[in-house]
């Protein structure tokens, strides 16, 4: 399991872990995350391009680029789908794929805790 050390300290689930989550009961599956983190975006990638790519996998509730505080850090994005199945499809197809010349790391993340900002950094 990898951990983002920025903005919310989300723990990325591997594709295998995400697929195993499908085996949960219906009650549990309603709580599965629809939040997807996209790491390694090129600086020329904008929100319009981001939406075009991810809308192919389902209905987007939100799609936002997150600009890092330091120019040495990579641009990343937060994408929220309507359903877990849509989020899983995007992760399955896009993780490790190239977009605008950069290899993407795409994974399902835990949603932010209510009252906690995605941009909060408690370190």
TrEMBL record:
**SUPFAM superfamilies given for it?**
RNA-binding domain, RBD
The family database entries (Gene3D superfamilies) matched by this protein are listed as: 3.30.70.330
One function term, GO molecular function aspect: RNA binding
The alphabetized UniProt keywords are: RNA-binding
The family database entries (CDD domains) matched by this protein are listed as: RRM_SF
Question: PROSITE patterns, alphabetically?
Answer: RRM
Q: Does the keyword Acetylation apply?
A: no
Which parts of the sequence belong to the RRM domain?
34-111
- Identify the InterPro entries for this entry: Nucleotide-bd_a/b_plait_sf (IPR012677), RBD_domain_sf (IPR035979), RRM_dom (IPR000504)
Cross-referenced Pfam families: RRM_1 (PF00076)
Q: What is the protein name stated in its UniProt record?
A: RRM domain-containing protein
- Native source species: Hyaloperonospora brassicae (Brassica downy mildew)
């Amino acid at each position: 399991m990898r951990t983002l050390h920025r903005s919310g300290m989300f723990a990325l689930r591997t594709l295998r872990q995400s697929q195993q989550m499908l085996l949960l009961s219906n009650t549990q599956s309603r709580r599965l995350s629809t939040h997807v983190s996209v790491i390694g975006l090129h600086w020329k990638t904008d929100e319009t391009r981001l939406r075009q790519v991810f809308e192919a996998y389902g209905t987007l509730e939100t799609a936002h680029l997150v600009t890092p505080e330091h120019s040495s850090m990579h641009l990343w994005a937060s994408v929220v789908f309507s359903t877990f199945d849509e989020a899983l499809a995007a992760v399955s197809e896009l993780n490790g794929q190239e977009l605008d010349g950069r290899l993407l790391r795409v994974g399902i993340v835990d949603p932010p805790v209510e009252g906690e900002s995605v941009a909060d950094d408690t370190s």
